[in-house]
Amino acid sequence: MSSEYAKQLGAKLRAIRTQQGLSLHGVEEKSQGRWKAVVVGSYERGDRAVTVQRLAELADFYGVPVQELLPGTTPGGAAEPPPKLVLDLERLAHVPAEKAGPLQRYAATIQSQRGDYNGKVLSIRQDDLRTLAVIYDQSPSVLTEQLINWGVLDADARRAVSHEEA
Known about the structure:
This protein is mainly alpha-helical. The chain has nine helices and two strands; from the N terminus they run ααααβααβααα.
Protein backbone atom coordinates (compact mmCIF):
# COMPACT_ATOMS: atom_id res chain seq x y z
CA MET A 1 0.00 0.00 0.00
CA SER A 2 1.47 3.35 -1.00
CA SER A 3 2.13 5.90 1.68
CA GLU A 4 -0.28 8.39 0.07
CA TYR A 5 -3.04 5.78 -0.18
CA ALA A 6 -2.52 4.79 3.46
CA LYS A 7 -2.85 8.43 4.52
CA GLN A 8 -6.04 8.88 2.48
CA LEU A 9 -7.47 5.68 3.97
CA GLY A 10 -6.49 6.91 7.42
CA ALA A 11 -8.21 10.24 6.81
CA LYS A 12 -11.41 8.41 5.88
CA LEU A 13 -11.15 6.26 9.02
CA ARG A 14 -10.63 9.35 11.17
CA ALA A 15 -13.56 11.15 9.54
CA ILE A 16 -15.93 8.25 10.23
CA ARG A 17 -14.71 7.96 13.83
CA THR A 18 -15.10 11.67 14.53
CA GLN A 19 -18.52 11.80 12.82
CA GLN A 20 -19.59 9.23 15.37
CA GLY A 21 -18.26 11.39 18.19
CA LEU A 22 -15.63 8.88 19.23
CA SER A 23 -12.12 9.56 20.45
CA LEU A 24 -9.46 6.91 19.88
CA HIS A 25 -9.91 5.84 23.50
CA GLY A 26 -13.66 5.88 22.96
CA VAL A 27 -13.21 3.33 20.17
CA GLU A 28 -11.21 1.14 22.51
CA GLU A 29 -13.85 1.42 25.23
CA LYS A 30 -16.83 0.90 22.91
CA SER A 31 -15.15 -2.16 21.36
CA GLN A 32 -14.29 -3.50 24.84
CA GLY A 33 -10.60 -3.55 23.95
CA ARG A 34 -10.97 -5.28 20.57
CA TRP A 35 -9.72 -2.12 18.84
CA LYS A 36 -6.74 -0.63 20.64
CA ALA A 37 -6.51 3.16 20.47
CA VAL A 38 -2.84 3.02 19.47
CA VAL A 39 -3.58 0.64 16.57
CA VAL A 40 -6.56 2.62 15.24
CA GLY A 41 -4.49 5.80 15.56
CA SER A 42 -1.67 4.25 13.55
CA TYR A 43 -4.17 3.22 10.84
CA GLU A 44 -5.52 6.78 10.77
CA ARG A 45 -2.05 8.32 10.45
CA GLY A 46 -1.14 5.87 7.70
CA ASP A 47 1.77 4.56 9.80
CA ARG A 48 0.46 1.02 9.80
CA ALA A 49 -1.08 -0.98 6.95
CA VAL A 50 -4.53 -2.37 7.58
CA THR A 51 -5.45 -5.74 6.11
CA VAL A 52 -8.61 -6.18 4.08
CA GLN A 53 -10.01 -8.40 6.84
CA ARG A 54 -9.31 -5.82 9.56
CA LEU A 55 -10.71 -3.01 7.39
CA ALA A 56 -13.93 -4.99 6.89
CA GLU A 57 -14.13 -5.60 10.65
CA LEU A 58 -13.53 -1.92 11.37
CA ALA A 59 -16.21 -0.91 8.85
CA ASP A 60 -18.59 -3.31 10.57
CA PHE A 61 -17.70 -1.83 13.97
CA TYR A 62 -18.44 1.68 12.69
CA GLY A 63 -21.57 0.46 10.90
CA VAL A 64 -20.55 1.72 7.46
CA PRO A 65 -19.97 -0.03 4.13
CA VAL A 66 -16.29 -0.83 3.46
CA GLN A 67 -16.54 1.29 0.29
CA GLU A 68 -17.05 4.38 2.46
CA LEU A 69 -13.58 3.85 3.93
CA LEU A 70 -11.72 3.44 0.66
CA PRO A 71 -9.96 6.47 -0.82
CA GLY A 72 -11.06 7.73 -4.20
CA THR A 73 -14.49 6.17 -4.04
CA THR A 74 -17.83 7.86 -3.90
CA PRO A 75 -21.16 6.18 -3.22
CA GLY A 76 -22.42 4.35 -6.27
CA GLY A 77 -19.05 4.84 -7.99
CA ALA A 78 -20.07 8.26 -9.30
CA ALA A 79 -17.29 10.32 -10.81
CA GLU A 80 -18.71 13.52 -9.38
CA PRO A 81 -20.85 13.76 -6.28
CA PRO A 82 -24.32 15.15 -6.83
CA PRO A 83 -24.98 18.71 -5.69
CA LYS A 84 -25.92 19.11 -2.06
CA LEU A 85 -29.53 19.56 -1.11
CA VAL A 86 -29.70 22.72 0.96
CA LEU A 87 -32.97 23.89 2.48
CA ASP A 88 -33.42 27.63 2.87
CA LEU A 89 -34.88 27.74 6.39
CA GLU A 90 -35.65 31.45 6.22
CA ARG A 91 -37.88 30.91 3.18
CA LEU A 92 -39.36 27.76 4.69
CA ALA A 93 -40.61 29.85 7.62
CA HIS A 94 -42.77 31.84 5.16
CA VAL A 95 -44.43 28.82 3.53
CA PRO A 96 -47.90 28.21 5.02
CA ALA A 97 -47.81 25.55 7.75
CA GLU A 98 -50.55 23.49 6.09
CA LYS A 99 -48.15 22.94 3.19
CA ALA A 100 -44.76 22.92 4.88
CA GLY A 101 -45.61 21.58 8.36
CA PRO A 102 -44.10 18.10 7.82
CA LEU A 103 -40.95 19.59 6.26
CA GLN A 104 -40.61 22.13 9.09
CA ARG A 105 -40.90 19.38 11.72
CA TYR A 106 -38.44 17.17 9.85
CA ALA A 107 -35.93 20.01 9.51
CA ALA A 108 -36.30 20.85 13.22
CA THR A 109 -35.57 17.23 14.09
CA ILE A 110 -32.41 17.20 11.95
CA GLN A 111 -31.28 20.48 13.52
CA SER A 112 -31.84 19.05 16.98
CA GLN A 113 -29.91 15.86 16.19
CA ARG A 114 -26.99 17.81 14.73
CA GLY A 115 -27.08 20.66 17.22
CA ASP A 116 -27.17 22.94 14.15
CA TYR A 117 -29.23 26.01 14.85
CA ASN A 118 -27.85 28.62 12.44
CA GLY A 119 -31.43 29.14 11.25
CA LYS A 120 -30.51 30.09 7.69
CA VAL A 121 -29.86 26.86 5.79
CA LEU A 122 -29.83 23.13 6.42
CA SER A 123 -28.11 20.48 4.31
CA ILE A 124 -30.12 17.32 3.86
CA ARG A 125 -29.18 13.99 2.37
CA GLN A 126 -30.75 12.07 -0.51
CA ASP A 127 -32.19 9.68 2.09
CA ASP A 128 -33.87 12.63 3.81
CA LEU A 129 -35.45 13.68 0.53
CA ARG A 130 -36.71 10.13 -0.08
CA THR A 131 -38.18 10.05 3.44
CA LEU A 132 -39.87 13.40 2.89
CA ALA A 133 -41.24 12.16 -0.44
CA VAL A 134 -42.90 9.27 1.41
CA ILE A 135 -44.32 11.69 4.00
CA TYR A 136 -45.70 13.91 1.23
CA ASP A 137 -46.81 10.86 -0.80
CA GLN A 138 -44.89 12.04 -3.87
CA SER A 139 -41.89 10.92 -5.84
CA PRO A 140 -38.58 12.60 -4.90
CA SER A 141 -38.52 14.45 -8.23
CA VAL A 142 -42.07 15.82 -7.82
CA LEU A 143 -41.32 16.87 -4.23
CA THR A 144 -38.09 18.52 -5.37
CA GLU A 145 -40.03 20.59 -7.92
CA GLN A 146 -42.52 21.59 -5.23
CA LEU A 147 -39.71 22.66 -2.86
CA ILE A 148 -38.03 24.63 -5.65
CA ASN A 149 -41.37 26.37 -6.37
CA TRP A 150 -41.68 27.24 -2.67
CA GLY A 151 -38.19 28.77 -2.88
CA VAL A 152 -36.92 26.35 -0.25
CA LEU A 153 -34.51 24.45 -2.54
CA ASP A 154 -32.18 25.82 -5.18
CA ALA A 155 -32.82 24.73 -8.78
CA ASP A 156 -29.52 22.79 -8.67
CA ALA A 157 -31.39 20.25 -6.56
CA ARG A 158 -32.88 18.93 -9.80
CA ARG A 159 -29.45 17.62 -10.76
CA ALA A 160 -29.13 15.85 -7.41
CA VAL A 161 -32.46 14.12 -7.85
CA SER A 162 -31.91 13.22 -11.50
CA HIS A 163 -28.48 11.88 -10.52
CA GLU A 164 -30.11 9.75 -7.82
CA GLU A 165 -32.82 8.40 -10.13
CA ALA A 166 -30.36 7.61 -12.94
